[in-house]
Design brief:
The protein has a domain of about 220 residues: Alpha-Beta Barrel (TIM Barrel). The protein has 12 helices and 8 strands. Helix 4 crosses helix 5, helix 5 packs across helix 6 and helix 11 runs parallel beside helix 12. The longest helix has 22 residues.
Amino acid sequence: MNVTPTKAKYRHQLPQLNGGLFLTDGGLETTLIFHEGWDLPAAEAFVLLDAPRGLATLRDYFDRYVPMAVERGNGFVLESPTWRANQDWGAKIGYDRQHLAALNRAAIDLMHEMRSKYETERSPMVISGCVGPRGDGYDPGTIMTPEAAQSYHCEQIGIFRDAGADLVTAITMTNVSEAVGIVQAAHKAGMPSVISFTLETDGCLPTGEKLSEAIKAVDQKTGGGPAYYMINCAHPTHFDDVLEAGSTWVTRLRGLRANSSRCSHAELDNAPELDIGNPEELGEQYRDLLRRFPHINVLGGCCGTDHRHVDCISRACLEAA
């Protein structure tokens, strides 16, 4: 029998579903690698949880973001630094399951620390356990069945549940099958889930599936399981023309974590330097999207973005709210 920890404050009533702007962070991994000088060849941010210096870096990172929300009366989604903290990626860099489990718990503990430090009545702080793809975030590779994906991801999701996370967010999903399995694993654990698809420059998933088809398929296969959907790791110009005003599937889309760069995934993979784009322009693009789709209210960044981009996004979108 699963017992819901009292620390899971919003698990049964996610405040972002009631409207109002909610910020989240930017490109954690690119910030750590390009701005902070960390050597993370697999973008394995979770390893910072293993030492005092790393924990201090992560605290400083969130300290640059969360006060923006408090200052402006926005909510905040505290996304755990666990995108790579699954069995396959952990094994590649020498972490066994026990060690990996400890760091997944430590990640949620850190999010609780941030919530305790910053949350106010006007700025609810939702703790999300971040799940990444089993494989690469740009290439779907060998696609698991939904059953295999459920089995694979259930251990990490169970840790998030027991550590008191409010929800599970699957970031950079490349295909429907893995997304379905994650939603099913979260449901079995009694956790709400969010699916964030990554898109290519044509607005389609790396599998070639249209975003509309992917959202409809996951909803159909899970009985509308996700609390909502997001887009991440794509520039607004890659997807703004595929969002169909008035379409039911678009109303299921509530969050954006865009890249700062207009480059394709292949170009980003081979880029020797970080392309931070134009933070003010990115904020304006978010504002324009929110004016067209005012139900979108969870806003952050992905590759190449940092607190400057989220600041511009927040300021611009307050005008559209």
